[in-house]
Amino acid sequence: MTIDKEYGNLEEHPCVVAFAAILCLLLFGFTMHDMKRPEYLPEFWVKLPAVEGLERGTGASRPPTFNITLRVNNRDSEPWHFKGPGRVVVAYAGVPLAHADLAEFTVPGEVISSVPIVATSSGLGLPDELYDRMQSQRRRRERVKLAVHVTLDGVRLWCTAILHGQPRGPFVCPILYGPTFDRTDPRQMMFPII
Ligand SMILES: *[C@@H]1O[C@H](CO)[C@@H](O)[C@H](O)[C@H]1NC(C)=O
C-alpha cells in the first residue's frame, strides 16, 4: 500500500499548510483591497457650462471647445490628491471631438471641489457627417449626449453630459477600474455612446 505514504497527511507537511495559509491570507488581503477602493475614491460628476465651435467643418472658423466642470466629492476625512497627469476626452457618437490634459489637484477631506477643464481640438468645427447628425437630433428634440471620459491614476470616469438641454446635470460618473488605460492607444479614444 503506497498511496497513504505518498500523500501522507497534512500534519506531516507543515510547509503545505503554511503555504495554503499564506495563500489564503494573500487572497483575502487582495479582496479587501479591492472592496475598499471605491470608498477611497471620491464621487465625480461633470457639468458642461459652455460649448463653442460646434460648426459644420466645411468653412468652420473655430475648433470645438467644451468648458467642463469636474465636481469631486471627497467623502473621506483625508485629503484626496490626484497626482496627474490625467486626460479628458469629449466624444460624440463614438468620435472624439476634443481633449484636455488634467494637471494634479488636491481635494481637502469632506469637501466638494470643482475642477475647471477646457477641452479643445486642433481641427476646426465638426466633421460634416457628425454635424448633420447632431442637427437632426436637435430637430427631433432628442437629447444630444456627449461622452466625457476622464482618465485618472488608472481609473476611468465614464461621464455623460447633455448638450444645450435639460436635464443640465450634474450626472454622477460611473468609475471603471481595470488595467491601466493606455493613452496612446487610438482604440481607447473611440468611445461609443448610448
Ligand atoms: C471657457 O473657459 C475659459 C477658461 O476658463 C474662458 O476663458 C472662456 O470664456 C469660457 N468660455 C465660455 C463660453 O464661457
Automatic annotation (TrEMBL):
Keywords: Membrane, Transmembrane, Transmembrane helix
Keyword Transmembrane helix (UniProt): yes
TM segment ranges: 16-32
Record protein name field: Late embryogenesis abundant protein LEA-2 subgroup domain-containing protein
